[in-house]
Amino acid sequence: MHLLTKTFCFFLIFAFIAGVPCSAAEAQPVNVRAAYPSVDVQYLPAYVAKAKGMFKDEGLDVELIVMLGGRSGVQALAGGGVHFVMQIGATLPAIWSGADFKIVAQMLNMLPFSLIVRPEIQRLEELRRKRIGLSVGTTTQALVHELFKIKGLDPDKGFEYVNIPGAAARIAALEKGLVAAAPISAPGDLKAIHAGFKRLVFFGDVLPEISATGLIASANYIKENSRIVEKMVRAIVRGTLAARDEPGVAIEVMQRFMKMSPDDARETYRIVRKSLTPVLTETGVRNMAGLVSGSAKIAQTKEPREYMDTVFINRALAELSKK
Predict the structure, then answer these.
(1) What CATH number does residue 168 fall under?
(2) Where are the beta strands (DSSP E) in 68-156?
């Protein structure tokens, strides 16, 4: 009996010790990598979700990774280097070329960019035969093309586009006189204005509802990791709603993540607050698709509904409405 008792105790101790690492491993948050092209207000809901522990609440350890230029993140998504990207427009050419990506969430339904110009520029027409700094083949070029069309100008005649990814590089190009204009999102637009340049146009004043930022993942990742996608979408929805409905939280996070002064954060928030909405619509995606397709001259081979997956966002909205 004594031997049996000792043996039984040994197995109990062994089972306890062996079980600890398993439980600890199960409790570890799941690493998720999400790429975006620049630190600006378009991604405010993700910053809020990160700062306020919303990802952590879902058991996720989310890395928000800056990859300059929208296409870099798309390439990383295609290659499995990241699990999500957050810029919608840059993914569309890849989708139309055969990439099986799905838009699963939205953060902003407006592109909060300003066309920043040198002080001597008074009208859009004056940009003819001058260089405009932007990310060629991405949403910023599409924005400028659409603006010119709305104002009755042919974007392909007399305008020179220079590939300059990122707000900081565009501001530096303005300062050196290398370009006369550049589309820049907050907080970069205010930095440029403080440096002596001016806002000629705010794109949000002239363009319709556009699905600008959100979450995009590969169909294969969604299929194999549906629970992670569900958790990620729910956190982004919570972040978007908090950014819209809690100004104090949003402004504090803007100061921390985007290194903005209190006054600049408040002014930027005033402009973008109305565009903070998690509701993904076919109209918004279609408008973005038309913008990108028209500027890049790429045929749309799929309808928006074919690369929208609203199951997760609708579920998250329904759950949160009950709380």
Answers:
(1) 3.40.190.10
(2) 84-87, 101-108, 113-117, 131-134
Phi and psi dihedrals of 131, rounded to 5? -95, 140
With a threshold of 0.90, does the pTM exceed it?
no
- Give residue-wise pLDDT tens across range 214-270: 999 999 999 999 999 999 999 999 999 999 999 999 999 999 999 999 999 999 999
Judged by phi (left if over 0) then psi (alpha if -120 to 50, else beta), residue 64 lies in beta
Please report how many Cα atoms fall inside a 13 Å half-sphere around the Cα of residue 305, on the Cβ side.
0
For Cα atoms 226, 41, 282, give the angle at the middle one, nearest 5 degrees.
50
Beta bridge partners of 217: 102
Work out how many domains the chain is built from and give that number. Answer: 2
Q: Are residues 185 and 296 in the same domain?
A: no
Rounded Cα gap, residues 161 and 14, in angstroms: 68
**Cα–Cα distance between 79 and 61 in angstroms, integer?**
21
Rounded Cα distance between 62 and 59, Å, is: 9
